[in-house]
Amino acid sequence: MDKLKWIQIDRSAIRHNLRWVRGRLAPGVRLMAVVKADAYGHGAPEVARLAVEIGSSHLGVLTLDEAFRLRESRPRAPIVVLSPILPSQAEDAARAGFELTVDSPRLLDALARTGRRVRVHVDVDFGLRRWGIEPERLPSFLRSVRRRPKLTVAGVSTHFDYVPGKNAVEAEGKLRRFHELAEAAKREFPEAICHAANSSVLLDFPHWRMDMVRVGNFIYGINPTKTPAPLQSPWSFFARIISIHRVSKGQSIGYASAYIASSSMTVATLAAGYADGLTMQPLSHLIGLGRRHRFWGMLRGKETPFVGAASISHVLVDVSRVPSAKVGDAVALPIRRTAASLRLPRIYL
């Protein structure tokens, strides 16, 4: 039976993006594929498999729950939990063998009490204030890890508050400072991996790739920088037309007659709405701001503007520019990937 709405994911685009990233890394620099938030909505197990196939040495998730879900697919690479877990989760995390981000003595104590060997990444805070220790505390914190013989320093990490085009000079200084701290740490812990570069840092600060880069956006065809990159988008969201009707100029459309047609138009009803995540502020090249509408889909290469607001399960679009539009046609729609409902089927090409 034909699906009314679905997300289409192109494996070849993901492979292309991963190979492009790998090609920018010097020999010996490792790649962590970030597959948090279900790989930005693309499906963490599938993206993890492709990433390891292309050469990713590590897989990054944000929470312990994500780590356990990913482990069910048995990926052939270490899973790193990129935010600190709760001390009460220490036993489960240690038993599972995940590599864990740490930033507090209390969490170190909880992990040590498990009696299991745990590989930890000590995170340093350079301004995001989400987690991490102060830079000046890194030496003493590392010594406190050493005092717990079952814990191994697998890495020293940070996540910068860099926004492309806004604070590059500040970011350069912070990257240099982190590198100095991490190199000093590696003199005592030579096996530790120094990692700070995300997608933006990888492209805008190529001299600070260090031992490993953590890439999320680039894998999914998203370039957050102003530097051109030959990325391919693996993501498409489609909904089928279930009804078509003519609307005359001056007729009202939608609840409370909220939309008044400014001209005669052909309106199509699509089987997708805000329950699918449709109107969460999307990040997509299909969306722009204009005088007449904020969002639109695409059918046969033509824009189909939204008519009024999306409802919970349907949205109306103006298909006047596509005279051949018919019931059953699939319209490509904009949607923020991480907001897309998990109920939407994912079809892999």
Explain this structure:
This protein has 2 domains: 211 residues, TIM Barrel (Alpha-Beta Barrel); 114 residues, Lyase, Ornithine Decarboxylase, Chain A, domain 1. The chain has 9 helices and 18 strands. Strand 4, helix 5 and strand 5 form a beta-alpha-beta unit. Helix 1 crosses helix 3.
Biggest sheet descriptor: 8 strands, parallel, barrel
How many β strands by DSSP? 18
Q: Taking all residues together, what is the mean pLDDT?
A: 91
Oligomer: single chain
* Alpha-carbon Rg, integer: 24 Å
Strands in their spatial order, largest beta sheet: 2-3-4-5-6-7-8-9
- The CATH superfamily of the largest domain bears the name Alanine racemase
The low-confidence runs, each spanning 5 or more residues with pLDDT under 50, are: 280-293
Q: What share of residues is helical?
A: 25-40%
**Alpha-beta classification:** alpha/beta
Total count of helical runs of at least 4 residues? 9
The percentage of residues in β strands lies in 15-25%
H/E order of the elements?
A: EHEHHEHEHEHEHEHEHEEEEEEEEEE
CATH architecture of the largest domain: Alpha-Beta Barrel
The CATH class assignment of the largest domain is Alpha Beta
